[in-house]
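Section 3.1: Structural characterization of target chains.
Under the original work plan, the team committed to producing a structural model for every single-chain target entering the pipeline before any wet-lab resources were allocated. The record below documents one such target. The sequence was received from the expression subgroup and is listed exactly as submitted; it comprises 153 residues.
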Amino acid sequence: MKTRDDVAAFEVLTRALVGISLESLDVLDGQVSLPQFRLLLTLAGLGRVPSTKLAGELRQGASAVTRTVDRLAKAGLVERGTDERNRSVVTLDVTERGRRLVTDVLDRRHEMLAAVLDRMSPEHHAAAVETAVEFCRNSDHVPAVGAAGPLPL
């Protein structure tokens, strides 16, 4: 099968973006794993939600989410609560400490992305932004919390 040049270009772009995303996690200094950070990032974007909603957003089973939340709660990054209307519903929210971790990573990621964009000519910069918006509009993989919200990585 012949590789399409346009697909190959986006494959390289994907690798560059994943590299930036992973490098931005260096500010965590091993405090949480990648799956744990993904949960924190998603939960920070959703706000206080039932654990079943978070599991659905992460496309994971409730038991996997519960195990990850147990570790994050023990570390003081996530807190459990109950729904006032139904006390049997377990709710989850990110603590202030957890929000600081998410903010630190996103701030670093934004710095790294801005550095790349700032090296582009104004024309390429504008085209890249327009292309990114259009690509996300046509993708089935934009997070449910919206293109302006947190990404799952």
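The mean pLDDT is 89.
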